Amino acid sequence: MKDISCKLLVIGAGPGGYVCAIRAGQLGVDTVIVEERKPGGTCLNVGCIPSKALIHAAEEYDRIVHLASGANPLGIRTTQPEIDLPQTIAWKDTIVGRLNSGVSGLLKKSKVKMVQGRARFRDGKTVEVETETGRQIIRAENVVIATGSAPVELPGLPFGGPVISSTEALSLTSVPERLVVVGGGYIGLELGTAFAKMGAKVTVVEAQTRILPQYDADLTRPVSKRLQALGIEVMTRAKAKGLGKGGSALLVETESGSEVSLPADRILVTVGRRPVTQGWGREELVLDMDGPFIRIDERCRTSMRGLYAIGDVTGEPMLAHRAMAQGEMVAEIVAGHQRVWDKRAIPAVCFTDPEIVAVGMTPDDAQRIGSEVRIGQFPFAANGRAMTKLGEEGFVRVVARADNHLVLGIQAVGQGVSELSAAFGLAVEMGARLEDIAGTIHAHPTQGEAFQESALKSLGRELHI
Ligand code: FAD
Ligand code: NAD
């Protein structure tokens, strides 16, 4: 096989890698991307997209179950629905398939060469790829490591049999009768809630004092309430120890130090993700590390010249949009543009029920850096649109500097608030002041009005409460 030489080689076609390659191709950079599995990476194949498809199906099913129960105030009556999980999974797979083709098409349109196989460094400028038709050598002036992340395995609970990761959970063909979820973070709660809505008896085992410990208690309270309403049992300060006899139970050490056995048909372990830093020849390089992650600077440069790293392999937050933003920036740097990481905030959305959005600083963050702040919080209970959607739980909260009213952060919890993340992100990124948000006409009736009202409230000028 003839060796390939290029200006840019990207290893891994997840959101970080494929965006980097597309942008580089658009800028006329001679680019090759190597992927051992499918284009789109974790996010598109076994992460963001399939999980949101499953969450949506579960929500729809739950809505109809609720209507069928006759306990709804809308006056709609229906008969008991059924969910055909294999068909739901097949539908999810068609969405993934369409997006796989979409990414391949975009790479092709940008004249990026795609090589299928596992890449391995020989040295900082040379990579070999085991392809179906033999070994391909690729020499590149610049290399981007975008190898992503993989689920963390617990020592006493290796994946296999009843113990599954999110990847297997997204392709189950029947709803487990009893599902124990280890880890009450993003994945555990998003998927745990979906399976509970589809009929599983779900128990969440969380080591910390509360679920979603990365968010403050005000934001997570409506989620806890909903978990309870769905019949999901949450055990906090509890640690998974291993499988019980016969593999159909999880042994858990409780807060008091006693051991309980939780019967389970499946045990979904979602205790975080680890960067993929093995298996691609890191030992051939001299890369500085930052704990388990590859150390990068504000241009995503590693400690080796011409070698960049982006996405989950470089650290928290492990989010697809962070990876994409880094990918786009690195492509432009390689093309000769002056770029540096100058983002003010990376929005985070947790697709629980209700959803949580966080952009920029929380009140606690602001306090920690000693900023005097003004906080405005507006409840959805006072928002007309939320009422018409039976979504009165939750609020929008804005955090701004007390002296000049610069918006430092915005958070919300409520039904469908993920779509407000764009408005929140824009406000923080553009350096909005409270008066800018308060002075913007927000369409009525929308949940977005709660954003305007939160700013008005922080200025002491609230109208609808
Ligand atoms: P990845 O997407 O992990 O891609 C890395 C790619 O590199 C993979 O395709 C892999 O096959 C390839 N690769 C690795 N090593 C080699 C090699 N040696 N040779 C060739 N190819 C290689 N994030 C969000 O922002 N929003 C969400 O809603 C969300 N939901 C999620 C739900 C789940 C269940 C999971 C698991 C994750 C979710 N995430 C979400 C996180 C998101 O998926 C990741 O942050 C994102 O995929 C990281 O992108 P990346 O490009 O860094 O790596
Ligand atoms: P996570 O960090 O969100 O949650 C892991 C949870 O497991 C934590 O609450 C932690 O306290 C708990 N835990 C750790 N060890 C434990 C043990 N032995 N027993 C019981 N609990 C234990 O991790 P995740 O849910 O696996 O998700 C991984 C990453 O994927 C997230 O951090 C996020 O970056 C990304 N993700 C994002 C989204 C989104 O943006 N909506 C969705 C899913 C995943």
UniProtKB/TrEMBL annotation:
Keyword terms, alphabetized: Disulfide bond, FAD, Flavoprotein, NAD, Oxidoreductase, Redox-active center
Annotated family: Belongs to the class-I pyridine nucleotide-disulfide oxidoreductase family.
InterPro entries xrefs: Class-I_Pyr_Nuc-Dis_Oxidored (IPR050151), FAD/NAD-bd_sf (IPR036188), FAD/NAD-binding_dom (IPR023753), FAD/NAD-linked_Rdtase_dimer_sf (IPR016156), Lipoamide_DH (IPR006258), Pyr_nuc-diS_OxRdtase (IPR001100), Pyr_nucl-diS_OxRdtase_dimer (IPR004099), Pyr_OxRdtase_I_AS (IPR012999)
PANTHER family reported for this sequence: DIHYDROLIPOYL DEHYDROGENASE, DISULFIDE OXIDOREDUCTASE
Miscellaneous information on this protein: The active site is a redox-active disulfide bond.
Name this protein carries in UniProt: Dihydrolipoyl dehydrogenase
Catalytic EC class: oxidoreductase
PROSITE patterns named among the record's database cross-references: PYRIDINE_REDOX_1
Single GO molecular function: dihydrolipoyl dehydrogenase (NADH) activity
Limits of the FAD/NAD(P)-binding domain: 7-327
Domain Pyridine nucleotide-disulphide oxidoreductase dimerisation: 346-454
Cofactor(s) required for function per UniProt: FAD
SUPFAM superfamilies recorded: FAD/NAD(P)-binding domain (SSF51905), FAD/NAD-linked reductases, dimerisation (C-terminal) domain (SSF55424)
Catalytic reaction list: N(6)-[(R)-dihydrolipoyl]-L-lysyl-[protein] + NAD(+) = N(6)-[(R)-lipoyl]-L-lysyl-[protein] + NADH + H(+)
Cofactor, how bound (note): Binds 1 FAD per subunit.
EC number(s) from the headed UniProt entry: 1.8.1.4
Signal peptide: none
Domain of life of the native organism: Bacteria
